[in-house]
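Why should sequence recovery work at all? Because a backbone constrains its sequence more than one might expect. Tight turns favour small or flexible residues, buried strands favour hydrophobic ones, and helices have their own preferences. The token representation captures these environments compactly. In the example below, the structure is given first.
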């Protein structure tokens, strides 16, 4: 009878070790998934921020081009003011076309 009790105790201890192993692996898997999710979230946030910065940069460049075109149009229009009649009208028309006004 003593032998049966020690076999049951050994199998219980073995079962406890296996359960502890499974619990440890499950915790490790959960920790890994959480870390991976946080890393993926951080990469996503960075990518969105980079895209926004690039968009703002492109918008700033477009605004600068527009401002330059307006300024150049004003200069061309001033030059047209020295002319008169059809020549002035054609000059203004050409300036509007050239500088997208």
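From this structural description, the recovered sequence reads:
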């Amino acid at each position: 009878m003593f032998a049966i009790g020690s076999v049951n105790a050994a199998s219980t201890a073995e079962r406890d070790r296996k359960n502890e192993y499974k619990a440890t692996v499950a915790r490790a898997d959960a920790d890994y998934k959480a870390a991976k999710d946080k890393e993926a979230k951080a990469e996503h946030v960075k990518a969105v921020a980079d895209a926004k910065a690039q968009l703002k940069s492109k918008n700033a460049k477009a605004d600068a081009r527009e401002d330059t075109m307006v300024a150049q149009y004003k200069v061309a229009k001033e030059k047209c003011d020295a002319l008169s009649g059809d020549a002035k009208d054609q000059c203004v028309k050409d300036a509007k076309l050239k500088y997208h006004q």
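A few observations help interpret the result. Residues 2-98 form one domain.
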